[in-house]
User: Which sequence fits this backbone?
């Protein structure tokens, strides 16, 4: 825990100040890789939405081993780090013949990890549907499938939309982890630029600002959506 | 190497750093969380603005970006910390921001009548916070703070990316020297699971005990 100043050999009176010209120069490069970040976020979110729903329905299964196993898997995935899961997918899967490129491995990792969180969200939505709805569906002779798709889910999903939105933002902020499995997204681009020029300050600052500009207004938007949705009830 | 040897080698190398980073950044995060959370409810506008800015900046940018910024970019401005201190600082600051929101909403959820009763009993605002509001709010916060603790433990794996030798870092090193990829990463997942599972159950137990008085 040493605090020391880099005085010697630095221009500008001992400090390396923020180089605006350099920042403007590298901005297009970083913005170009923003596309990868966005693709990873949305594809991962989509996968998590689908898998999360599957997990939440399986954990409500009437067949005990199925629901037990699902809950166990969810518990395990939620209690281990996303970074290690990404390494696992990227380095272990190829040993069993499934070689994935960094982007698809990243999407798979993000999707699986967050599906366990989303399954909890779905579950809370499903549990908030009054029990009478299940009984009514049974009385009307709906099949189990029809009950889910026509009665339960249409009522369970709208109230949880803001929570799902918040998870989208969370996942967006987790995408820099994919740089660990060699995916060149915005953070990795900034790191490569820094390694080439020894100017880390500009690149990392820009990346931070990009994350803030994109996530702060979105979370505000979701908050207002939440207020509006909750007013209805 | 046998599985057992790999396990020992992983634990010997990285467990200490993972636990140190988890412990100290948890302490930092809780202190910051309570400070910033209560500051956001302060009657002084300047305190509200400062803590609001801290919370939004650290929640709005990604933890890994903050970690890299503190480790690679800050030295260029003349401030350099050691890797372990940077790790604790970054994780503490990041989770402190999340915890402050938990603290704030829990305190907000205490009925107004409690504060009024404190005023009627002639308590100072500090007394009413310490003796009435916080003890009640704490039970509300606990499950969420517990979840944050698990998230924090998991996020310590990121410190391997600033070359700090924690469990994940050692797994990567071990992997490149032994090529026992499947065993190493499976063991690593299991180790994290084994550390965080007792925490999960511990928090659940504490939660049950603290909410006994509630009907």
Assistant:
């Amino acid at each position: 825990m040493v605090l020391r100043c880099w005085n010697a050999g630095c221009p500008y009176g001992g400090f390396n100040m923020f180089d605006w010209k350099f920042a403007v120069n590298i901005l297009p490069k970083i913005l170009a890789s923003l596309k990868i970040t966005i693709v990873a976020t949305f594809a991962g979110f989509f996968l998590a939405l689908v898998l999360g729903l599957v997990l939440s329905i399986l954990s409500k299964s009437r067949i005990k081993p199925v629901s037990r196993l699902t809950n166990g898997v969810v518990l395990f995935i939620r209690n281990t780090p996303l970074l290690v899961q990404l390494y696992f997918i990227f380095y272990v899967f190829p040993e069993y013949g499934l070689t994935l490129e960094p982007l698809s491995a990243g999407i798979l990792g993000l999707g699986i990890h967050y599906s366990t969180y989303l399954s909890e969200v779905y579950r809370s939505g499903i549990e908030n549907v009054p029990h009478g709805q299940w009984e009514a569906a049974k009385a009307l002779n709906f099949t189990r499938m029809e009950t889910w798709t026509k009665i339960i889910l249409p009522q369970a999903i709208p109230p949880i939309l803001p929570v799902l939105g918040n998870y989208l933002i969370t996942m967006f902020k987790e995408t820099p982890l994919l740089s660990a499995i060699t995916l060149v997204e915005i953070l990795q681009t900034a790191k490569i630029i820094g390694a080439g020029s020894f100017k880390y300050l500009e690149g990392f600052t820009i990346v931070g600002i990009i994350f803030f500009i994109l996530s702060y207004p979105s979370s505000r938007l979701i908050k207002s959506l939440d207020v509006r949705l909750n007013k209805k009830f | 190497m046998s599985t057992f040897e790999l396990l020992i080698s992983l634990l010997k190398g990285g467990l200490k750093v993972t636990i140190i980073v988890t412990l100290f950044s948890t302490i930092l995060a809780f202190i910051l969380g309570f400070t910033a959370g209560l500051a956001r409810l302060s009657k002084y506008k300047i305190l509200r603005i400062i803590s609001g800015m801290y919370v939004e900046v650290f929640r709005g940018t990604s933890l890994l970006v903050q970690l890299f910024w503190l480790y690679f970019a800050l030295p260029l401005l003349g401030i350099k910390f050691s890797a372990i201190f940077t790790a604790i600082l970054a994780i503490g600051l990041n989770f402190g921001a999340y915890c402050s929101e938990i603290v704030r909403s829990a305190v907000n959820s205490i009925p107004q009548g409690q504060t009024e009763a404190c005023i009627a009993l002639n308590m100072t605002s500090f007394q009413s916070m310490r003796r009435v509001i916080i003890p009640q709010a704490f039970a509300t916060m606990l499950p969420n703070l517990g979840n944050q603790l698990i998230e924090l433990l998991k996020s310590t794996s990121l410190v391997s990316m600033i070359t700090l030798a924690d469990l994940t870092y050692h797994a990567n090193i071990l992997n490149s020297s032994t090529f026992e990829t499947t065993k190493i990463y499976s063991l690593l997942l299991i180790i994290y699971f084994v550390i965080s599972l007792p925490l999960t159950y511990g928090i659940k137990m504490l939660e049950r005990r603290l909410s006994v008085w509630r009907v």
Summary: The first helix of chain B runs from residue 3 to 39. Chain B has a mean pLDDT of 92. Chain B has one domain: 3-210.
